[in-house]
Amino acid sequence: MKPTARLLRRPTLTAGGLLVALVLLMALVSLVWTPYDPTRVDAAQRLLAPGGGHLLGTDQFGRDVASRLMTGARTTVFVGVVAVGFAVALGVPMGIAAGMSRGALSGLLMRVSDFLLAFPALLLAIMLAAVYGTNTLTAMIAIGIASAPGFARVGRAATLRVMAAEYIDAARLAGRTRAAIALRHVLPNIRDVVIVQVSVAFATAVLAEAALSYLGLGTPPPTPSWGRMLLDSQELLFSRPELCLWPGLAIAAAVLGLNLFGDGLRDRFDPTLEGVR
């Protein structure tokens, strides 16, 4: 079957992939080029309407909105990648250990997961900000810790299914250590569900980063952030609503794309679930 035909058979995966690719493209392009300096304040150019020299206009400080939107994509992707990577590194080994151990150790690991689950990203960010101050690192750690229990639960459930397979018994009889079984047999066979969970957690991280920046607990100024752009534009909601519209659409597109992409990956890895919601 041709690649185009395969894509058309999975419109959810295709649509989600296109939206995610658009956000990533914005972030990558902003590394080398933006129409204007996203942090440059120019009072003479404040509140210009979209068009002309400024595609999406300027904000109340004369900063180019398109440039800030592109740089905000970079900030969002960076925070999401680091936070989700931290969650994977913390949650997946915990889930595998719980699934392979069962018994008291499994119960202890899952209670630790439940304890972490009781602290949402916003609460963790407030606690960490009170101790270490408001910065991007605080937001990444808070989002990562809040996302780790999801990976632990998914990893444990998938590991339990793998451990019931006959090839695990064969590996034990061959004298393989628990670490070798985990690395060579368990981890490769739970990879697909972990990848799907990554897409879900990344969407959550995008929302959490925007919320934290909106509350002043995330990326500090002058670094552009979609949540910070919403905060800066709220006082102009009725006079210049498009200033709220652009970052809001960017957040919505990123979250929708990641959720569609995750659903598409789930259907791709397990065709028996295709069409099930």
Automatic annotation (TrEMBL):
<feature type="transmembrane region" description="Helical">
    <location>
        <begin position="137"/>
        <end position="154"/>
    </location>
</feature>
<keyword id="KW-1003">Cell membrane</keyword>
<comment type="similarity">
    <text>Belongs to the binding-protein-dependent transport system permease family.</text>
</comment>
<keyword id="KW-0472">Membrane</keyword>
<feature type="transmembrane region" description="Helical">
    <location>
        <begin position="12"/>
        <end position="33"/>
    </location>
</feature>
<keyword id="KW-1133">Transmembrane helix</keyword>
<keyword id="KW-0813">Transport</keyword>
<feature type="transmembrane region" description="Helical">
    <location>
        <begin position="77"/>
        <end position="100"/>
    </location>
</feature>
<feature type="transmembrane region" description="Helical">
    <location>
        <begin position="112"/>
        <end position="131"/>
    </location>
</feature>
<dbReference type="Pfam" id="PF00528">
    <property type="entry name" value="BPD_transp_1"/>
</dbReference>
<feature type="transmembrane region" description="Helical">
    <location>
        <begin position="237"/>
        <end position="261"/>
    </location>
</feature>
<dbReference type="InterPro" id="IPR050366">
    <property type="entry name" value="BP-dependent_transpt_permease"/>
</dbReference>
<protein>
    <submittedName>
        <fullName>ABC transporter permease</fullName>
    </submittedName>
</protein>
<feature type="domain" description="ABC transmembrane type-1">
    <location>
        <begin position="73"/>
        <end position="262"/>
    </location>
</feature>
<keyword id="KW-0812">Transmembrane</keyword>
<dbReference type="InterPro" id="IPR000515">
    <property type="entry name" value="MetI-like"/>
</dbReference>
<feature type="transmembrane region" description="Helical">
    <location>
        <begin position="193"/>
        <end position="217"/>
    </location>
</feature>
<dbReference type="InterPro" id="IPR035906">
    <property type="entry name" value="MetI-like_sf"/>
</dbReference>
